[in-house]
From TrEMBL:
<feature type="domain" description="Gfo/Idh/MocA-like oxidoreductase N-terminal">
    <location>
        <begin position="4"/>
        <end position="122"/>
    </location>
</feature>
<dbReference type="InterPro" id="IPR055170">
    <property type="entry name" value="GFO_IDH_MocA-like_dom"/>
</dbReference>
<dbReference type="InterPro" id="IPR000683">
    <property type="entry name" value="Gfo/Idh/MocA-like_OxRdtase_N"/>
</dbReference>
<dbReference type="Pfam" id="PF22725">
    <property type="entry name" value="GFO_IDH_MocA_C3"/>
</dbReference>
<feature type="domain" description="GFO/IDH/MocA-like oxidoreductase">
    <location>
        <begin position="131"/>
        <end position="269"/>
    </location>
</feature>
<dbReference type="GO" id="GO:0000166">
    <property type="term" value="F:nucleotide binding"/>
</dbReference>
<dbReference type="InterPro" id="IPR036291">
    <property type="entry name" value="NAD(P)-bd_dom_sf"/>
</dbReference>
<dbReference type="InterPro" id="IPR052515">
    <property type="entry name" value="Gfo/Idh/MocA_Oxidoreductase"/>
</dbReference>
<dbReference type="Pfam" id="PF01408">
    <property type="entry name" value="GFO_IDH_MocA"/>
</dbReference>
<protein>
    <submittedName>
        <fullName>Dehydrogenase</fullName>
    </submittedName>
</protein>
Length: 346
């Protein structure tokens, strides 16, 4: 068996904490090359994980691999993905897909032209609760989704490392970094309907205060350029609506990452998983007490990507769906700026 040769661009936290260890467990793949703008960092990571090539030029790395994982700050996702796809290399790009819809479109065009695979690491879809929720939604038990509530809420956990508070490098804050995950999951669970209209607001009052209490390190208000809280109302082509709230730094009793779907036949809560229904003239809430989990989500994601590159499966995360997430995020930022709702035409 010829192993799929994988390279990684951006040797930071998510590369070393998730992707490299996961892909190194996949028998059909071999981790071949690593590159980072910080060459010392790339060498350190290559040494730690036994990766053969440390590259300083992307074209050079692309010549050595079959598939590229992109784990750089968000600003570099689109250019790196397009360069890799044009060179005939499959791509899995970290979330968010890119900074805006136009960049996502350009990535999809490059994938379609090259015939290579493009997918986005929306890993929540591989979690056992999410896969179980998808089975319930697909069974029709909840009926047609009508109102979808999405909460991606952290109490005072602004990332105090990396470049997460740079607008230039990340494109935004809590929404593009954390909200995107649960928004992606909610759209996928409810049938991936296209967004048509968005009204949203963003805030960063808490992170601009001096001497905040923050569990995830120190934040500097002088360089804090993004939102720490966002709320939005999103209309979908299906007729359903999404009510989204996301924050890195809310004044709430505790963190909450949850989705609640009200459908025509019943309701579904995710994290924790619960079905709400009426039956036999009564109201029932069914709690799920055990969900099988054979493998971790990161390993499932890695194995699935390798299978897709080998033509044995199609990507669970379709790039058009990731583009819808990015166009909603872009529209929330625009709506927050103008104070008006934004129509999504694409
Ligand atoms: N799926 C998730 O849950 C999850 C979690 C964390 C981060 N992420 C995503 O992963 C990406 C990276 O986040 P991170 O937490 O690893 O950040 P990080 O700051 O820890 O690592 C980023 C690395 O990229 C390198 N880099 C910067 N610009 C580069 C360039 N142009 N070319 C090559 N390397 C470059 C940096 O030197 C650094 O080593 C972001 O897009 C982020 O949104 C996803």
């Amino acid at each position: 068996m010829t192993k799929l040769k994988i390279g990684i661009l951006g040797a930071g936290g998510i590369a070393t904490g998730r992707h490299i260890p996961a892909f190194q467990q996949v028998e059909e793949a071999s981790f071949t090359a690593v590159m980072d703008v910080n060459e010392d960092r790339a060498r350190e990571v290559a040494h730690k994980f036994g990766i053969g090539h440390v590259c300083t030029n992307l074209d050079d790395m692309l010549g050595k691999i079959d598939a590229l994982l992109i784990t750089t700050p968000n600003k570099f996702h689109a250019p790196a993905a397009i360069q890799a796809l044009n060179a005939g290399v499959h791509v899995m790009c970290e979330k968010p897909m890119a900074l805006n819809t136009k960049e996502c479109e350009d990535m999809i065009t490059a994938a379609e032209k090259s015939g290579k695979m493009l997918t986005i690491a929306y890993h929540y879809r591989f979690m056992k609760e999410a896969r179980a929720a998808k089975r319930i939604m697909d069974s029709g038990e909840i009926g047609e989704p009508l109102v979808i509530r999405v909460k991606a809420m952290r109490r005072r956990k602004v990332p105090g490392w990396g470049v997460f508070t740079s607008r230039d490098l990340q494109g935004g804050g809590a929404l593009i970094d954390y909200g995107c995950h649960l928004l992606d999951l909610a759209l996928w669970l409810t049938g991936s309907s296209k967004p048509t209209e968005v009204s949203g607001t963003t805030y960063n009052h808490l992170s601009m205060q001096k001497e905040q209490v923050n569990e995830w390190g120190t934040i500097n208000p002088a360089t804090f350029e993004v939102e720490d809280h966002a709320a939005a109302f999103i209309r979908l082509e299906s007729g359903a609506v999404v009510m989204l709230e996301t924050s890195w730094a809310a004044n709430i009793p505790e963190d909450e990452g949850a989705i609640s779907i009200s459908g025509t036949k019943g309701g579904l809560e995710v994290f924790p998983l619960r079905i709400n229904k009426s039956e036999h003239g009564m109201l029932f809430n069914s709690d799920v007490t055990w969900i099988p989990e054979e493998k971790s989500f990161e390993l499932l994601q890695a194995e699935h990507f390798v299978q897709c590159c080998r033509g044995e499966s199609v990507p669970l995360v379709n790039p058009y769906e990731s583009m819808f997430v990015s166009s909603i995020i872009e529209s929330i930022y625009e709506s927050a700026k103008t104070g008006s709702s934004v129509q999504i035409k694409r």
